Amino acid sequence: MASPAVIRCYAFIFVLSVLLLIRPSISIYCDEDDCYDLLGVSQNANNSEIKKAYYKLSLKHHPDKNPDPESKKLFVKIANAYEILKDAETRSQYDYAIEHPEEVFYNTARYYRAYYGHKTDPRAVLVGLLLILSGLQYLNQWTRYNQAVEMVKKTPAYKNRLRALELERSGGVSNKKKNNKIDRNVQEDLSKELDLQINGAEKPSLWGLVGVGFVLLPYTLSKLLLWHGCWFWRYKVKKAPYSWEDASYLTRRSLGARADAWRNLDEATKDDLVQRQLWVKSNMDSYVSDMRRESKRRR
């Protein structure tokens, strides 16, 4: 293992290499030139003096006035220096970089934030981000759904449902060709009539996308507040008995079951669970104990 002295030496070499590779914080503004020298003004010059100096130099070095290639390059530098010095914020940042050239990372970050951060509307960035996320989410949901459908189609239960549907459409006359296998075209036609409900991989819906949810967020929050207010008034203040829908919600929440899993339960099981009033802790504890005893008995 390397000694602490060797590690410090390597760290020093690494930091020195990074600093050598990074351009000085002043040069990111006007390359290797001084912005004030390019315009021929002092650092204490006011905005009027800077503007006059720029117009004077632009008349001399503008490509329309001077076709010399070197003059054209100089004009680009002059125009860049004027853009930096005419704005109070960027000028103050440049002056700070001159006084503190050792703060490379800080000066560089301020430069790029000033020149590129304000050019992009945050609302456009937000909209673009939501569109990208929604597109990826929608594509992922369709991929998961198609994969789940392909897996379901390989199960015997699906094949039996498909065969039953074929017999129903053909009036009970089964096709005996191809070892009793359904023709691919017929199979695709029949499969469109089967409504596949696959837990965990439902068919994608635009209403479930993050972008749509963000747009509808005010409506969703208002609806949620109204729901909680009605719940509090009905069951906390008026002490009314729970409706079957609300009792179902409490039961599902107590069990930690997903909404789609609860919907797929048969009505008799739902009624039994609701009648147990599992949102009451003692009833829930009793139900868990019964399930454990039932599980041990089956073993």
Please, could you describe this protein's structure?
Residues 34-98 form the J domain. It is found in: Endoplasmic reticulum membrane. May play a role in protein folding in the endoplasmic reticulum. This is J domain-containing protein. It is a multi-pass membrane protein. The chain is mainly α and 299 residues long. It has three domains: 11-117, DnaJ domain (Helix Hairpins, Orthogonal Bundle), CATH 1.10.287.110; 123-191, no CATH class; 216-298, no CATH class. 72% of the residues lie in helices and 0% in strands. The protein is built from 17 helices and no strands. It has helices spanning 4-21, 27-30, 35-39, 47-61, 69-85, 88-99, 104-117, 122-153, 156-169, 177-180, 184-191, 210-215, 217-237, 244-255, 259-263, 267-275, 281-298. Helix 4 (47-61) runs antiparallel to helix 5 and helix 6 (88-99) runs antiparallel to helix 7. The model is unreliable at 15-24 and 176-181 (pLDDT under 50).
